[in-house]
Structures
1.
Amino acid sequence: MARFKRHHALPGFGLTMGFTLCYLSLIVLIPLSTLLLRSAGLGWSGLWQTATSPRVLAAYKLTFGASVIAAGINGLFGFIVAWTLVRYRFPGKRFVDAMVDLPFALPTAVSGIALTAVYSANGWIGRHLDAIGIKAAFSPLGVTIALTFIGLPFVVRTLQPALEDLDMEVEEAASSLGANRIQTLQRVILPSVMPALLTGFTLAFARAIGEYGSVVFISGNMPMKTEIVPLLIVSKLEQYDYAGAAALGLSMLMISFVILLAINGIQWWSQRHRAGA
Amino acid sequence: MSIEVQHISKTFGSFVALDDVNLTVPTGQLVALLGPSGSGKTTLLRVIAGLEQATPAPGIDSGIRFHDEDVSHTPVRHRKVGFVFQHYALFRHMNVFENGAFGLRVARPRSRKLQIQERVHQLLALIQLEGLAHRYPSQLSGGQRQRVALARALAVQPKVLLLDEPFGALDAQVRQELRRWLRRLHDQLHVTSVFVTHDQDEALEVADRVVVMNRGRVEQVGTPDEVFHHPATEFVMHFLGQVNQFHGRVEEGRVRFGNLELPFPQYAHNQDGAARVFIRPHDVTIDTKTNGLPSIQATIERIHSAGAVVRLEMRTDAGQLLFAEISQERFATMHLTYGGTVFVRPRHIRVFTDDYDNCTRSAPLSI
Amino acid sequence: MAGAASLHARATIVQPRAIAEPKLVRWTLIGTTLAFLSLFLFVPLAAVFYEALRKGLSAYLHSFTDPAALAAIKLTLLAAGIAVPVNLVFGLAASWAIAKFQFRGKHLLITLIDLPFAVSPVVSGMIYVLLYGANGYLGPWLIAHNVQIIFALPGIVLATVFVTFPFVAREVIPLMQSQGTQEEQAAMTLGASGWQTFWRVTLPGVKWAMLYGVILSNARAMGEFGAVSVVSGHIRGKTNTMPLHVEILYNEYNFVAAFAVASLLALLALATLGLKTLVEWRSAVALAQAEANPVVQEKAS
């Protein structure tokens, strides 16, 4: 009978609910709705023109391309990091574990200049890359590096609980049935943590698409080459092209919604999957 | 402080949890609300406490009175009830002492520290947990938590004490102990108390009066003796202890069931019709030979002799399962075996019939 | 979408011998982990302090005597000092309404509260420009009444409030939900008022989750760049927060000063991680304590 409203003995529902809805509307909903209103001012053809101008298309290509690659790198190495942190003991592990959240805690501007300093042609790492002819900073590779940094915690932190929850008896069963570790990984471990891995990948991807601060320093911001969509929004705003900026912002918001739906879909699918197991 | 419940109904959506309940709890008594889950007993307790509001019934004089004072619209925090929750609901971030002091502190934030200390320690002595004042709930056993919850409720000197399944979450042995302890405590304090239980033994052993509830209605109110020996309805008959039920008829002042026909003077002037006949397992005599007295012939299917009494499961020729309880002494003299034939003679039966207007009448018959 | 950070105590699982990897594999994986994290985390972090101290300690300390730097530090503290408490109050109010009562549309409400995480920082700032900017919907009215929001403190605070909006709520709501309403009901029967119940019973039960949310939102509030950058106008000494000041100094090739201010922010980040780990540990202890009261679905009987 838990579905019935049974808690009215407690006071304060009207007050807290009213405050929540007012505050949510004033801070989030009404300001966000301006995106819709402004872009609507452009009309369909205007929207289409804004969204398909060559500079915008190039920015989208770079933003999505670098985000997918960065999320992919995080998927692979994030799995290894999470696995190591869950399964092995090594000196300094607690410290390493805590540091995984650094990209959350470090202001993006600081990450941006730090990565630029390290990966530019005379930086600690960029110097060695430069020696073998790879230009890291001020290139699409630099964008990818920044986005990898920013997405790292998402994959690791979604994978860790999933790996902890893995029933080790299943692995023992697999090995008792003659599977080696590689086969166990392929057939037992990966399938069970796949929803978490996909969720982490998607979260990292979503964060990467909108990222601004850490990218603008390392990318060099060359139109058509290393210009990302958020930067394009800022430059449109600086030219007082509010409608154009709103249209781009709206498109990014839509993409975020699709990604949110995808994450919910993954979770729904994995719950169903688990319930059936 | 007496409690009076008048015409109280409570619905959750389309589910009727309480259906026009009336009840009086006399001052100083310990009363059990007994019923199966879903019978409305916990809801009734929560309505008395003010944790739930009764569904208003227009045109009916309904309400809750504490000693003639209408408290229906008094919010829970001003009702001065002591409520003991089924899962204790101890404040987990407070130790035993702080739990006990909570009610005193919120009532008079400026009250003297010493007074509070004295009162709480007095209560901890009462519940025999003086040494554990600084323990946290997680460091206590289930029975200890239960007692702390009770002490916390008593600290504010409630007018009435309400307990929701007070022993429900405890294991059997602790239950037994706490039951007797609660009874002794009540005899000491004489606070008008109502407790909810689905365990008939608990209700019959502890309470002064038992209120049997079913489907949101009160089936019967009475002393443990009354409800056990003189059940008012078939539900009470079924709910309090095991019972054998037969479908029979009442005709011309005689009752017929199985292969038996007995004179039944109470129903002499009654309309003829269907009847339900109930026999408690301990109200039968078992014989291996027929001795001419009216009896039901049956075959023994099972014998449970490990216990204070020996319980028999038998099947009548008509295929009905029949339960009986006999003493160990009698069992020792009888040489009963599986598959053996016995004659079951009811000593005491209870007959329920439907009246013209579908009212149920019941009458006992001793044979 | 900072969905990955949440209050969660971690443990090492001891692998039984039969399914343990060979030593070589194990150390290769550990090595890979450390190398990857070094490349992306440790080396850049070290670079911040290295660059800041490159020209010696006195040059480093001298950077902080710049009035513009001090103004930036002040503004950052002010913006966070407003945004974090306001969002804390909101988070607690929303948690009470959502966790203690049943109503239609609860899931939608939770999703809407999480929404700011899904919005790009630049867009988060832009929406306030569209609303309050000179060419925004309320712009003309604001100019007529001589109120400046964009390119001023109110705009910076609004953008900061937006990006830190969900932090406290999303930590506290699930915990409050899992704790049920039994203790609150008990407090009411003992004569406590609504406020007394909240302060003495509910709040102590969620304090670690609340603190966790505050720590995370404070870090974000002080470090936010994209959203604030759009609404600030970059007026030196006036509307520059620390991250914006870092950008300006960097673009002026004043690297030592840029990294000096950045090093303060990096220290803030390290302190945040330290506190966060401490709270995770404390809340694990509190959780063990909380097992006293198993939360059981209430039944109507």
2.
Amino acid sequence: MDIICNGLGFQYSKKTEFAKYALKDVSLTIKSGEFFGIIGHTGSGKSTFIRHLNALCEVQEGSLSVGEIDLSPEKKKGKKKKEYKKRLKDLRKSVGMVFQYPEQQLFAETVFEDVAFGYKNFNEKPSAEEVEAAVKGALSLVGLDYNLVKDKSPFDLSGGQKRRVAIAGVLVAKPSILVLDEPCAGLDPAGKTELWALLHHLHKTTVETIIVVSHDMNDVAKHCTRVAMFSDGTLKRVATPSELFDDTILIEESGLEVPVTAFIKNELLKNGLEIKTDYTDDNFVEQIVNLYKSRQV
Amino acid sequence: MDAIKIENLTFSYDQAEKPVLDNLSLTVKSGEFLAVVGRNASGKSTLARLITGLLTPNEGTIEVLGIVAKKPKELFEIRKKVGIVFQNPDNQMVASIVEDDVAFGPENIGVRREEIGERIEFALNATGVKPFRTSMASKLSGGQKQRVAIAGVLAIKPQILILDESTSMLDPRGRDEVMSVVKELNKKEGMTVIAITHYMDEVTECDRVAVMIEGKIQRIATPEEIFSDEELLFRAGLEKPNAMKLADKLKKRGIKGLDGVTDKESLYKALLEAFNKQNQ
């Protein structure tokens, strides 16, 4: 399922005196199979953008389609309105959305019930066996032991585990696109590493496309295949991390920091020491070592 | 004088459960910048809530600036002297206009009207939020909001400031804004700071680091000592800051002189020197 948007624009409090463009003229294609990063300062429009992918923000200007589902404004007028509503359900089944601090949305008495809620929401009158199989599958995907956690209260789990349960509650609907807003915020370093590993595992096994909003440029350089950078409601650039971080000035003007590897590369360049790197740690180390060896007399 | 002296502190939310804090002792010096690190649920936030008197110990004593809170009156004294800033600034805002929000604290503890004005000025200046003192708090960015939250705490003139993951919801620029304000308060005003954090880059710049594992302080030492204790880092679910990880990898590949690296600036300087010296 490709995501294609053209000239997408959005105002909060539209037609009031508080109206303000949160998103303006965004054209972007995210292909099926990408591990796509979205970056930008607070208030840059990145959250407004991802909300469109799930129709939590309805398209006001321009067009947006997710796979076969066209979300453009004219599709929800007149006779098409009913059909549009039906499509919203398909859309929300295909695009799983994990918000910031998703564990705050846990509500049920047991982990089982919490995860099952997502499944029941998208499948009409499922049998008990179907629900159980789906919950089992989702929990094992996020690396939790079904028998160990199913009857526990989600509130008795640790922070990292709660977040996994919340993600399982989204995965249980078997989305082909998974969107995560700052999935690592508030996790300890070990939990963070585990969560990235989980995302890669999902990407390899069950979820076609992963879209992740992140503030950590080191993580973006390491994990994403392409990145979109937002600033003040506009899309500034779409590129691979290595192309993007070559443009330090643009990054810093947009209120972001470059990864450590890009910082060092730039500073060394000022001293006449030049390396080419894709900004991942291992490649950076390799390039520094090569330069060092080449200068050895 | 010690800012905080904790002896044999034990606490559990539910008496039947395993204690969240288990026979913990800790002394924080006056004017010190202490980082507290450890896994989620290792007891860090519970410790902060006990110090501010939001929770009461099951066993052991907590002495804050010479006061042991036994009666509500003493607790009130402690709360005047210890400020805490939580993770989400939205949970800590009480008024809709920035300066009203900052005034809430001193009004609440009964500061004289004339003095409230002075305190607000001080707090607004110290945190750099003066330019938007009459703005709606809800219209500010995360970093700005969190600085307003700190200003609100400063207006009480606390001697101890506790940050409970106060930067975790902010973007890199917001995080820098908040941390530079806090560092200045620590250096210039001599304010004691306890920062609970998951960001290892924030840890490298503090005086000492307390590493918590399952309700105990496993080790308390300088950042250099903590980050060279590989076994401890692993057990506590910690990682070195990015610059240090890179330095380690480069060291393994035979590049010398990278031992003192703590952050990106020192890594750059050490590398430059390694290149300059390599053929001498």
